[in-house]
Design a protein that fits this description.
117 residues, four-stranded antiparallel sheet, two-stranded antiparallel sheet, 6% helix, mainly beta
Length: 117
C-alpha cells in the first residue's frame, strides 16, 4: 500500500496537540514502607509468624493519584479549604478512601499473623 492509500483510509497517526502553556505536571509518589516479621517454630510442622507493617512511615503528603486525571486548574494559585485561604496548594491530596489498599495515603499500620502447618 502507498502512503496516499493509507491516508485515504485514515490509517496514519493523527497529530497530538501540545499541552497548554504553564500546565502543571503530575506530582511524584513519596512513600517509605517497612515490614517486620519473626518466626516461631513449634515442633517440625508448625510455624507461627507475627508481623507488623508500616506504610508511609514519614507521613508524606501525596497528590495526583493514579486514578485522578490531570486538570488545567492546578496553577499554583491560592485556594480555600474550610474557610481558610492557602497559597500554592492543590486539592487532590490522596487519602485513605475505602477498602484496604490506599497507595500514597497517610501513615497506616497493619498487624499480621501467618500460621504454616
Amino acid at each position: 500500500m502507498t502512503l496516499t492509500q493509507l491516508q485515504g483510509l485514515g490509517a496514519v497517526q493523527q497529530p497530538i496537540a501540545l499541552a497548554p502553556a504553564g500546565n502543571v505536571g503530575l506530582g511524584w509518589l513519596k512513600t517509605m514502607d517497612l515490614k517486620v516479621g519473626w518466626e516461631y517454630k513449634i515442633h517440625d510442622r508448625l510455624t507461627v509468624e507475627p508481623s507488623l507493617s508500616l506504610f508511609n512511615i514519614l507521613n508524606f503528603a501525596n497528590f495526583d493519584g493514579p486514578n485522578q486525571r490531570l486538570g488545567g486548574t492546578l496553577d499554583g494559585g491560592s485556594c480555600s479549604v474550610n474557610g481558610a485561604t492557602y497559597n500554592n496548594c492543590t486539592t487532590n491530596r490522596l487519602g485513605l478512601g475505602t477498602g484496604t489498599f490506599a497507595l500514597g495515603a497517610p501513615r497506616a499500620f497493619e498487624w499480621g499473623l501467618r500460621i504454616t502447618f
